[in-house]
């Protein structure tokens, strides 16, 4: 299993245990089946998503594209309702 770095805590973990996030039309969206093309940013937990959302540019830097400052609650809600995590 390839490893990825969490943008929240910088831990390096199996990508299968993390949530992949991509930029879709300038907005941060979870990519739970890993099919969305382009660069992905990874977080290992809701806490790390919140941490990363607090820091301006953390996702822009990871994704190398412009994204609106994400709201952690809204993004995590998408993760939860898709049902693969939490
Ligand atoms: Zn983390």
Give a brief description:
By secondary structure, the chain is α+β, with helices and mostly antiparallel strands. It is 30% helix and 22% strand.
CATH topology, which one? Hypothetical Cytosolic Protein, Chain: A
CATH superfamily membership: YlxR-like
Please outline the major beta sheet: 3 strands, antiparallel
User: What is the count of distinct domains?
Assistant: 1
H and E order: EEEEEHHH
Looking at the chains present, what oligomeric state does this protein adopt?
A: single chain
Any overview of this molecule?
The chain has 3 helices and 5 strands. It is α+β, with helices and mostly antiparallel strands and 86 residues long. The protein has a single domain (3-82), classed as Hypothetical Cytosolic Protein, Chain: A (2-Layer Sandwich), CATH 3.30.1230.10. Helix 1 (46-54) runs antiparallel to helix 3 (72-82). It is globular, with a radius of gyration of 11 Å. 28% of the residues are buried. Residues 6, 8-9, 11, 43-45, 48 line the site of zinc ion.
Name a few traits of the molecule.
3 helices, Hypothetical Cytosolic Protein, Chain: A, binds zinc ion, globular, three-stranded antiparallel beta sheet, 22% strand, 86 residues, alpha+beta
